[in-house]
Predict the structure.
Amino acid sequence: MNILIQKFGGTSVSSFERRKLVAKKVLLAKDKGYNPVVVVSAMGRKGEPYSTDTLLSLLEEKFKENNPLCTDLLLSCGEVLSTVVMCNELTKHGIDCVPLTGGQAGIITDNKFSSANLIRVDTERLKTIISQGKVPVIAGFQGITEDGYITTLGRGGSDVSAAILGAALNALEILIYTDVDGIMTADPRIVLEASLIKEMSYSEVFQFADQGAKVIHPRAVEIAMKANIPLVIKNTMNNSLGTLINNEEEYNNSNIITGITHLPNRVQITVAVNDNLQNSNYYSLLNILANNTISIDLINVFPSQKIFTIDNKDLESFGSVMNSFGIKYSCIEDCSKIAIIGSRMRGIPGVMAKILNCLSKESIEILQTADSHTTIWCLLRSENTEKAINALHKEFNLG
Ligand code: ADP
Ligand code: MG
């Protein structure tokens, strides 16, 4: 059916001027003979009137915790508003379009409110609309349970909606339109000289997304990879070619490092092994933390102490678990986990040394490191994040 998924993020639909640019992208796709399927996010970012964060602030914390059904219903409204407003603009450009909620578009999920999982996509309605030459405009970030309750797919979930629909409709491409030219060597808000990466493999983009590069949701990358549909990240505001993501592992990139990203809000935990905690009890502690949905990473096991990190949001529940077992620990709050990513660093010696030298030249204290074949992580105090990323970006000539 020549289907092209065109997903537009929050900033792309936030103003009249930008929605006009969106309409032009949809028109162009139609003119080229594609059947566009449009997916939109809620309008604007934090602080703007119809953004997801603004909607969230309408409810009290305790109510939100105890009423996931209400919370998801409220959250879904941001994308619904955006859908209808976008239809207004598309109609003005002579595009025959049909507004749909996620549920109306056939996205059926389980009832894990706020981070629902896909069960299936019922595509009949979408296929009928497309075969009539109309453009479905779908509210991203949401689905519906089998028994008709509206769910949301987790923050950044419109990317996931786009990928889900792309896979279900066997689209030619999934285009993610945003406010930057594509995937860059670092967040351009942090590194002014960050450069565009023209082509990447799904697995490398997954690393970027999973390690904090907000530009695409990791789950969307997984879904596109499984369906083997090319993903393209583009700027709504210009005609840059963007980043093409597919299965190719070897690109014409001579740099061993592809880019740098980071996860903020990490807390480093140190637990001493003595009367406080026996080695054998440490492994049961890991299970207990997992059962309390506290995920830990950067795990270093030494005979005399155990070190790992947790997310800041879990610090309170972590404290309760540790107190209930009478285990003492020390922590360094407000850390950042920097990820230096590059699938070509496999087997190349000296990369870690180069990173450590570079950070030491900048007098940046490294709290912990870890490495895999494709990524080196450094835990730093978050006040050093921007300085460290900029220094490493320069060190590896990524600009
Ligand atoms: P949208 O609302 O379009 O979904 P997001 O805010 O979710 O947009 O993602 C785009 C943002 O991702 C950019 O504005 C940029 O600041 C951030 N970002 C972080 N890391 C990267 C990176 N490596 N490349 C490009 N953008 C990045
Ligand atoms: Mg996004």
